[in-house]
Amino acid sequence: MLGSGTSTGVPVVGCDCAVCTSTDPRNRRLRPGVLLELPAGAILFDTSPDFREQALRHGIARVDAVLYTHPHADHVFGLDDLRVFNFRQRAPIPCFGSEPTIARLRQIFAYVFEAGQEGGGKPRLELEAVAGPFELLGERVLPVPVWHGTMPVLGYRIGPFALVTDVNRIPEESLAQLAGLELLILSALRYRPHPTHFSIAEAVEVARRIGARRTLFTHIAHEVDHATLSRELPPGVEPGFDGLVVELG
User: Fold this and answer.
1) Which residues are registered as beta bridge partners of 242?
2) What are the backbone dihedrals phi and psi of residue 232, each rounded to the nearest 5 degrees, phi first?
3) Distance between CA 64 and CA 83 in Å, rounded?
4) What is the DSSP string of 127-182?
5) DSSP states of 172-223 as a string?
6) How many CB atoms lie within 10 A of CB 119?
7) Distances from the Cα of 111 to the Cαs of 18, 54, 121, 122, 136, in angstroms?
8) C-alpha 94, offset from chain centre
9) Choice among 16-30, 115-129, 220-234 with the minimum mean pLDDT
10) Are 45 and 163 in contact (CB under 8 A)?
């Protein structure tokens, strides 16, 4: 888990609340991101604005593909930092997302996809819109449609693992696609209700319905103290934190 925070990150700039001033390192949350290491390569989920720092902290040596959930700033603004991996790997990086997400990436990062002076270099990316299952690095990737307010976004399932972030509603057919998981990473913003994100109570109920062996919460706001939440959650559900590593059987 590269980042477990919400769009502002934690600490929040200028905030002196108990969590933002906490000495518990698990309360320091970069913007959301996950790296899945497979025998055939590494898949990055989203490129947060903190991606460069995350890559340095955790010694990321390569990125073989990126799966984008949606095009909000806290999930895409680190895209330019992929170019370092182009230099090292001497190959373009395939990037996958819904058709609207791919269109927004082309708009936000127009300089990457237009002819023109490169200056210090531009990322070499192959954007691919997905609407159904596809093969990647020897694995079957299942896009899972969910809702972020009125915005359709994608979760992803790869074998016994799934990531579903920035979500406040999961259709029944998508819940069925998440059955039998070993590990689920699910966003749970805060205790109070929110119009576009699951609250902690809502996320706990969704985790119960999905029934993964282990559920980790992410996209956590500064109103939530890690140690306190850990004590409150039911067995099999826990808050994630930056730097957490899970080995899947």
Assistant:
1) none
2) -90, -20
3) 12
4) EEE-SS-EEETTEEEEEEEEEETTEEEEEEEETTEEEE-S-SB--HHHHHHTTT-S
5) HHHHHHTTT-SEEEEE---SS--SSS--HHHHHHHHHHH--SEEEEESB-TT
6) 7
7) 41, 24, 11, 8, 27
8) 17
9) 115-129
10) yes
Question: In angstroms, rounded to a whole number, what is the distance separating the alpha carbons of residues 67 and 226?
Answer: 27
**What is the pLDDT at residue 223?**
97
Whose CA is closest to 88, among 64, 58, 118? 64
Cα distance between residue 141 and residue 161, in whole Å: 10
Q: What is the pLDDT of residues 89-127, one digit of tens each?
A: 999 999 999 999 999 999 999 999 998 866 668 999 999
DSSP 26: G
Beta-carbon contacts of 197 under 8 Å, excluding residues fewer than 6 positions away, are 148, 166, 167, 168, 187, 188, 189, 190, 219
pLDDT for res 69: 98
Contacts of 31 (CB under 8 A, 6+ apart): 3, 5, 6, 7, 9, 48, 49, 50, 74, 75
Tell me the domains of the chain and their CATH numbers.
25-239 (3.60.15.10)
Could you tell me the two tokens for 153?
Answer: 């976004």
Distance CA 93, CA 107 (A): 18
Tokens encoding 29:
């949350």
Across the chain, what does the average pLDDT equal? 97
How distant, in Å, are the alpha carbons of 2, 76, 100, 165, 223 from that of 190?
Answer: 20, 22, 28, 14, 6
